[in-house]
């Protein structure tokens, strides 16, 4: 199987698995929000954000290090995997202790604390599963990750929804989440040992120190990146309460569900890491092409979501979440810049510029923390959304200027042609707004792609690449 076939296969597998999983998770979130109300949904969302802020310490950048180094040299797997697993176990104990201690210091109600404990344990088991996924990605065997991802989502959604409709609270639903992640952890470990490792190596302090030294820059990037996401709902909860979190989180979870469109970046990373050693020309060609497609896909979604935010919220959550409409409008464009930053991250990690990533993310964290405090204090959940949009836009500019000056400058044509097509599509949506939502979506997609063709956004080379990928998929 050639490289294009592998990229196509892995991208499609991850996309299908994540589409199914995210739809299942979204269904559970929607029913919790509709059935239990904004306050309980706020507790549920807060528990996840709070636990993630501390559980992220279990990663230490090990997953990215394994993907980057094992993709280039498969012989490193045995030493990396076992020593990394020992490190991760010690960090897991530390992370859960932090979760338990700090949530008690904040003096939240007993039921909120219990949900945080359970979700915290579930997220830690999930971090081990994602450690196993990094091995699958390094070997470009994403079918194992896809299987485990869908299995987890099925268990959580089926049994979680059953618990919800039987009248149980979010505590029992949280227990379902924990059990599902324990099952995935056990299966993931079995697959890694059976398919990729014959015997586990001995623990080595020397190897472990080397792994930690290499992984630390990635850890800084990950923990800062995770902070940028999770600090929002934690700050909102502390400053305005969990009901405000509920209104913000309903819109935010819809934006997160759009993350399925970014999954092909995950399958591109191992390839770009290899190109860094073998062909710089191929590396930057891949970067340019993926960025171009990503921008052309995300831009119309952001425009459409902004215009149709009220219809989307009412359809999915009902009129009790009318306060979430403005949040969704703002986050629609946050998602555009957030997605493009993901491509910048992938490029810089591929070329071993983790220190640059660390500096930019540190700047973003400081800026977001200050901005959040000011905007939440004055405008609550709407202010939080605006704060995120402002910070992500500034961060995008910083990344773009740095990469353009140091590595590769993208053509202006990449930006303005899809923008023209998107504006025309937006005008069409505006005039069709009173029609059925699905009819509007179908019509707007057709209009957008016709405009892309008329503006010659894609070259003959792009069409040849698409045909090649499609023929390999078939």
Keywords:
single chain; 474 residues; mainly alpha; 16 helices; 86% helix
Spatial gap, N to C terminus: 13 Å
Largest sheet: none
Identify the overall geometry: globular
Tally of strands: 0
Number of helices: 16
DSSP strand content: under 5%
Number of domains: 1
- Residue stretches low in confidence (pLDDT < 50, at least 5 long) are 469-474
Q: Which percent bin holds the helix content?
A: over 70%
Report on this model:
- The protein is mainly alpha-helical and 474 residues long.
- The protein has one domain.
- The protein has helices at 3-55, 62-72, 77-105, 110-138, 142-165, 170-195, 205-240, 242-257, 263-278, 280-307, 309-316, 325-350, 354-406, 413-431, 437-454, 460-473.
- α3 (77-105) packs parallel to α7.
- The longest helix is centred in the first third of the chain and has 53 residues, at 3-55.
- It is globular and about 65 Å long.
Would you spell out the secondary-structure blueprint of this structure?
Blueprint: H1 3-55, H2 62-72, H3 77-105, H4 110-138, H5 142-165, H6 170-195, H7 205-240, H8 242-257, H9 263-278, H10 280-307, H11 309-316, H12 325-350, H13 354-406, H14 413-431, H15 437-454, H16 460-473
